[in-house]
Every structure is written in C-alpha cells, then in structure tokens.
Write a structure and sequence with these properties.
24% of the residues lie in helices and 27% in strands. The protein contains 4 helices and 6 strands. It has one domain (8-144, 153-190): Heat Shock Protein 90, CATH 3.30.565. With 197 residues, the chain is an alpha+beta fold. Helix 2 packs antiparallel against helix 3 (157-164).
Length: 197
C-alpha cells in the first residue's frame, strides 16, 4: 500500500461504535505474532484499533484522534480521555526522538484494546495501549524522568505518563521495544462518591 503524506500505512481495524453497529472500511490483516507483537493476544473482540505508521510527527494527530475515540467508546471521563491521549502522544514523541533518534519513516505500531483484569482481587475493566517500535534498545532502568523541581523545558513526559496511566510497563522482545500502558475504567458513580460513603 502506498504511503500517505501523514505516514500512516494502514488501519487494521477501525474504532467502531457498538451502539450504532457502524464500522466502515473494516479490513483485517495477517497476524504479527511471529514478529514480536504481544505474546498473549486477547480475544479479537477486545481489539478497538491497530495503527501501523511511520515515525513522522505529522502522523501523531491521527493517532490522537483514534485513541481519543477509543476512550470515548469506553466511556472514560473527559479529563481521563485527555490524559490518555496526551500520554500516548508523549510516548510516541519519545519513540521518534529517542528510539529512532529523530529519523522519519521507521515503523511504529499502536494497538488499543478493551482490557479486563484484576486490581487487588477485584475485577477491573479499562483500556490497554501497546506501542511497538524497532528502535534502539533502551534500558528500562534508564527510563527515569528528571527531578520535578528541575525547572527547564522538556523531560517531564515520563512523569506525566506514569501519573496519568495506572500501569506502565516497558520490555524488549524479538528486537522490538514494547511500551504497555493500562488505564482502569472507574465508574462515574465511584469517582463522584462523596467522602464518608
């Protein structure tokens, strides 16, 4: 498939609105399990969107739009939607800047899934976002943001991601960096409950 000017190769499965039963342009592609994608893949029905793009800052607006729509479909609060989108945007900017050293045209995959799990023994739902790149291997121990009181531009993206997301895990498998982020979906009634109840 020819590359668009924005650097997005293909949309594997677009975000659909389950209430309206709409999904135009649905297209499934081959599995990437042998290429270092996620070791255990959840059910296909949990997949919201997978984007394959090239390292190009101009493509980030498309990813922001897709992730924002995924957060809306799962009924996150507006504030959480914005925080999730900013976290993904920051993570992608870091992939381009650090893993790919600012080079354009290198592959990045972004996958958003509905997530089911347990948090301290209680069933929890949420959104899982996985970023894969083939950039420079990074030492997870070196992924430390600078001190918050060090006032200067830049360097706070990792702090923001860790503050905004409930789980942040970095790994390297089969020559690929993987950043996995999960945000729990807390019901609005639980968030709005007054103290003492």
């Amino acid at each position: 498939m020819a590359m668009s000017p924005t650097g997005v190769n293909r949309l594997v499965k677009p975000v659909c609105n389950p209430n309206r039963r709409e999904c135009q342009g649905e297209r499934l592609t081959e599995s990437n399990d042998a290429s270092g994608s996620m070791a255990s893949t959840p059910a296909e029905s949990d997949l919201l969107v997978t984007l394959q793009l090239n390292s190009n800052p101009e493509a980030l607006c498309l990813v922001r739009a897709a992730v924002g729509r995924a957060t809306e479909l799962l009924h996150f609060q507006d504030r959480e939607c914005r925080a999730i989108v900013r976290s993904v945007d920051e993570a992608l900017a870091n992939v381009i800047r650090h893993a790919y050293q600012g080079k354009n045209g290198l592959p990045i995959e972004v996958t958003c899934r509905k997530w089911q799990g347990n948090d301290n023994g209680s069933p929890t739902a949420g959104l899982e976002i996985v970023l894969l790149d083939s950039g420079i291997a990074l030492d997870p121990a070196s992924l430390q943001g600078r001190e918050l009181d060090d006032i200067r531009p830049g360097g706070l993206g990792l702090h923001f991601i860790k503050q905004s997301m409930d789980q942040v895990e970095f790994s390297r498998n089969h020559g690929k960096n993987q950043l996995r982020m999960i945000k729990y979906l807390v019901p609005a009634t639980a968030q709005a409950k007054p103290e003492g109840e």
